[in-house]
Write a structure and sequence with these properties.
TIM Barrel; nine-stranded mixed beta sheet; binds iron/sulfur cluster
Length: 267
């Protein structure tokens, strides 16, 4: 089925109003961040501190230097919306063939005005937002409303557990999920499977329950745990000390979803 490509309202950019953003990676030929072959824009800055985060260079909103055995590497480049859209539009011929552009991070909602301005300047391309869902409802609606697909992470339904493992409240996330279910934008819920943390039957059941309460019932994808998560922490000057047992394989338990007739699969 052909997906409708949405266009944001075009604005006439002026030097004073064009927002700038900070990107820590611009990865071409990605295949896991939405349909087809894509270019993924990794935006710098995230308000969460997930214990399992495998992109520590995306946490700080500022450009930084990573230091490792191979030497120093600057991370984080500033672009105007016009500059980034021009780079992405140059790839339009390839990306239009069933693929598109994905905004990921970090958390793209931290740079919502910039992301929205880039999307406004894109040619007819499929746009995906890969988000933790954490941000103001205004920012969320601004960006999600310009996208064709939202990959919405749901980690933990229990409020206290969410604060413990991600450092933030899950209420803004659940509020934005409800907002998304009332919008026209397609969405998929993605659950990172962290052993003993997010993969418990109680948490998966609570996610399935929340899904059936939404006015629109999305597909759920369970994401396997990235065991190389800790690799880049030292280079970012951070300590990798997850309080869960990394040696335990996470449970890809689809039963809680099947019991409530929620379409779910291991991604
Ligand atoms: S939301 Fe994503 S980028 Fe942010 S801390 Fe969690 S895993 Fe890392």
């Amino acid at each position: 089925m052909m997906r409708a490509i949405k266009k944001g309202p075009r604005k006439t950019p002026t030097v004073a109003t064009v927002p700038t953003g900070v990107v820590f990676d611009l990865r071409e030929l990605t295949v896991h961040d939405g349909p087809g072959i894509r270019t993924t824009v990794f935006l710098k800055g995230c308000p969460l501190r997930c214990a399992w985060c495998h992109n520590p260079e995306g946490l700080s909103p500022e450009p930084q230097v990573m230091r490792g055995a191979g030497g120093e590497r600057p991370v984080g480049q500033s672009y105007t919306a016009f500059e980034l859209a021009t780079i992405l539009n140059r790839q339009a011929l390839l990306l239009r063939d069933g693929g598109g552009v994905t905004f990921s991070g970090g958390e793209p909602l931290m740079q919502a005005a910039f992301v929205a301005a880039v999307i406004d300047r894109l040619e007819e391309l499929h746009v995906t937002l890969d988000t933790s869902g954490y941000g103001t409802e205004e920012d969320f609606r601004l960006v999600a409303g310009k996208c064709d697909l939202v990959l919405f992470d749901l980690k933990l339904m229990d409020a206290e557990a969410h604060r413990r493992w991600t450092g933030v409240d899950n209420q803004p996330i659940l509020r934005n999920l409800a907002a998304l279910a009332s919008m026209k934008t397609e969405f998929i819920i993605r659950v990172p499977l962290i052993p003993g943390v997010t993969d418990t039957p109680e948490n998966l059941r609570a996610i399935a329950q929340r899904v059936i309460e939404l006015p629109k019932r999305p597909r759920v994808e369970l994401l396997p745990y990235n065991r190389a998560a800790g690799g880049k922490y030292a280079a970012c000057g951070l300590e990798w000390r997850p309080a869960y047992d990394e040696s335990v394989a996470p449970q890809a338990n689809l039963k809680p979803f099947q019991e409530l007739n929620v379409e779910a699969a291991l991604a």
